[in-house]
Write a structure and sequence with these properties.
Number of strands: 11
CATH class of the largest domain: Alpha Beta
Oligomer: single chain
Number of domains: 2
Radius of gyration: 19 Å
CATH topology of the largest domain: Aminopeptidase
Structural class: alpha+beta
């Protein structure tokens, strides 16, 4: 039902919606940490039995991670206060959870979405490019891999994954240091049950970075890719990316996509040089 509305809104508005529906479903079904299910909230608006509006709240990366909000309204039911009512419920829930950092996601091409966020005083923070592998002419060979090996992360590696996330994505979470707080963090084995497999990249049996790979309906996703500071400038980022593409092709991915912060010029240049092309831009806004 929610997915049908997403397809209709995307088709008529020519936009992308980052609803994370598959991830949420897997989380509800497979998570061994039942408190994580409480990190997900769905608010729906119906006309009779027809779903006409939806907003979802999601939190990734621990109890201090920002709440991410995204939603949609059937194009035939807009300007009737549907989204405003759903948004009111979301704000109430965020206050109940004492959320200190709330991000709202909106496709840059969504005119109605951008206007609504301007109306409620949301402040632009950053943007993410969604990119798909469009040019596969580059032949992946062992030399390009630079001896990189992937090791599937287990729950024993949870602290290391969290530590690397703080290093790579510090600007997005407004953290001022790389210390990992004593709080709920991502458990790799739980993430795998939801469809997201975390790999630690190793060189000569030493961890130099990581990447998260996902397969949904034939689409392979590359997320959270990073190289530890002491190992940068050696071509390891390209090697991890190419090995990720190879791994996804091995499991028969029909398409391969990734997301990268628009301000991350180095990563953007790398992805383009490996054949990825921008398909959409997602803007992130902060609510006071």
């Amino acid at each position: 039902m929610i997915n049908d509305l997403q397809i209709e809104c995307s088709r008529r508005d020519h936009i992308s919606l980052k609803l994370e529906l598959d991830y949420k479903l897997e989380d509800a079904v497979n998570s061994t940490n039942k408190t994580s299910i409480n990190d997900i909230n769905e608010f729906m608006y119906f006309d009779g039995k027809k779903l006409i509006g939806y907003i979802g709240i999601c939190s990734f990366g621990g109890t201090k991670a920002p709440l991410e909000i995204t939603g949609m309204v059937d194009p035939d039911y807009r300007r009737k206060g549907v989204f405003s009512k759903l948004f009111e419920l979301v704000i109430i829930e965020c206050k109940r959870r004492k959320a200190g950092n709330i991000l709202v996601l909106c496709d840059r091409k969504s005119v109605t979405g951008q206007k609504f966020l301007e109306k409620v005083g949301a402040v632009y923070k950053y943007s993410e490019y969604e990119m798909y592998l469009a040019d596969e002419s580059n032949v992946i060979n062992e030399e390009q891999m630079r001896g990189i090996k992937f090791r599937k992360a287990t729950n024993i590696d949870a602290y290391e994954v969290a530590r690397q996330n703080k290093i790579y994505f510090v600007d997005h979470t407004n953290q001022e240091n790389n210390d990992v707080p004593n709080e709920k963090i991502l458990l790799p084995e739980d993430e795998e049950k939801r469809g997201m497999t975390i790999y630690l990249a190793e060189k000569d049996a030493r961890v130099i970075g990581k990447v998260h790979l996902q397969m949904i309906n034939g689409v392979g996703g590359i997320y959270g890719l990073g190289v530890l500071p002491d190992n940068r400038g050696k071509g390891f980022g390209r090697a991890i990316l190419l090995k990720s593409i190879e791994r996804l092709k091995d499991v028969k991915a029909k398409e391969i996509m990734l997301q990268v912060a628009a301000k991350n010029a180095i990563a953007l240049k790398l992805y383009k040089s490996c054949g990825f092309r921008e398909t959409s831009v997602m803007d992130y806004f902060k609510l006071g």
